[in-house]
Amino acid sequence: MLRLANIHAGYGPIKALKGIDIEINRGEIVSLIGSNGAGKSTCLMTISGILKSVSGSIMLGDTDIAGLPPHRIVQRGISQVPEGRRIFPKLTILENLQMGAFLGRGDFTTSLERIYKLFPILHERKKQSGGTLSGGEQQMLAIGRALMSNPDILLLDEPSLGLAPIMVSKIFKTIQEISSEGITILLVEQNARAALKLSHRGYVLENGCITLSGSSSDLLDNKKVQQAYLGE
Amino acid sequence: MFFQQIINGLTLGSVYALIALGYTMVYGILELINFAHGEIYMLGAYLGIIILGFFTALGLTAYNMPIALVLTFILTVFFCASYGFTMEKLAYKPLRQAPKLSPLISAIGVSIFLQNYVMITQGATDKVFPSVAGNEGFTFADIHITYIQVAIITVSGLIMLLLHAFISRTRTGKAMRAVAQDKNMAALVGINTDNIISITFIIGSGLAAVAGMMVSVYYGLVNYSIGYSAGIKAFTAAVLGGIGNIPGAMFGGILLGLIESLGAAYISSEYKDAYAFVILILILLVKPTGLFGKESEEKI
Fold this sequence. Notes:
The structure holds two protein chains of two kinds. A six-stranded mixed β-sheet of chain A has the order 6-7-8-3-9-10, with helices on both faces. A four-stranded antiparallel β-sheet of chain A has the order 2-1-4-5, with helices on one face. The termini of chain A are far apart. Helices cover 38% and strands 27% of the residues of chain A. Chain A has ten helices and ten strands. In chain A, a hairpin with a 2-residue loop joins strand 1 and strand 2. The model of chain A has no long low-confidence stretch (mean pLDDT 93). Chain A is α/β, with parallel strands linked by helices. In chain A, helix 3 packs parallel to helix 6. By secondary structure, chain B is mainly alpha-helical. Chain B has a single domain, classed as ABC transporter involved in vitamin B12 uptake, BtuC, CATH 1.10.3470. A two-stranded antiparallel sheet of chain B has the order 1-4. Chain B has a two-stranded antiparallel ribbon with strand order 2-3. The radius of gyration of chain B is 19 Å and the shape is globular. The mean pLDDT of chain B is 91. The chains are: A alpha/beta, B mainly alpha. The interface between A and B is medium-sized, with 25 and 18 residues.
């Protein structure tokens, strides 16, 4: 459903992605693992259109979405939860969710009820400003905001970063739930073990190149992956 | 005397507040001090004269003055908003990815260009705004309040209330706040940030146009260079309230107007224009974030 082919992207003279190929099928959870600075976030920002790829194509179904502005990409059903959550701190929780539904994909009330069911705490605190939430609550809000546009594909960047262990398992459980609703997920994680356990397939990104890919169970058994990312 | 100065200060302050809003809104979204903003105010003053003159030639002012004034108002706002929109597209948008100093220099360039453009087309001498209501008004407990003052304070107050409602309630207003807080994140939720930036310039320029027109009615004289000093004073008002903070700009404008009026009455009217600069220097020394501003976090 989403296919990156030979994507090159970077920041000025710095080449962060050096020709990567990633394919994601409908309904899958695919994880993208790699160390700091490998280009994982760059990859997601390029898919979302914040960063323009220098060359290569990003096929969503039959259309190349590379080079489209970010709002057009959200319009086509790809939504992102960026690293660091990036809640609008001075907007209330409800307003943050309203912004998630800015393009009006799907019915607002239905989406809102779905998010409140997924994260009841957001309903309790809907009048509170986003900046007053704890890290875990902000992560829930960030996921909720991304889901408000009723995406077909959800890009998640380090959803477990900086969270307490109990919150980490809650977030991973939520990702599973979202996936079971039929949303395709591309998951970027430092916590490679948890990510691979959750996902169907995985890609390993090193210095802007995909060095390994395969089913998650194969990657979990792979010696190199174990040494480099699973700490064994 | 004191209350008379308060009324004068409020009049002046509402005008500063309207201009300061444009500075603060643009800064909030682009982190750009739009030095050409004062010129939009000056264009508003000139366009007011030109359009009202046109209606006078048509005989509309003689037929019905209020209608002529309202139409002049609407057209002036429309033209100034177009200037603001065009200015952003031509002088700032191409520099969106450039270092922060580049759009700032571009803004100074736009300012110089617009001043000279008006000087060449309209002449370097003062232009007289046709007297609309003169010094007419009413006297209440020794305070003389002109109808024009009442109009300026009321119109400014109404516009500020409307703006506040727009920004806090509407979908576009919330999107403006979202863009101001995190531009890339706003794009990631599907907000067309370029549109929001254009809307910000349109609104800011419209407010400056209203201010320019009201001042030319109030003082009756305009000059191609009035945008410079009004711009600096409104900028001071915006900094006083905390740049990027909308209620802060409203408050800062009114406060600056009051300080100027009272300072002129009780200290010296010779230094009328200096008070704004003294305040600007004091704020920058003592509380650079302004009265309502918060310490901004340096984004990596």
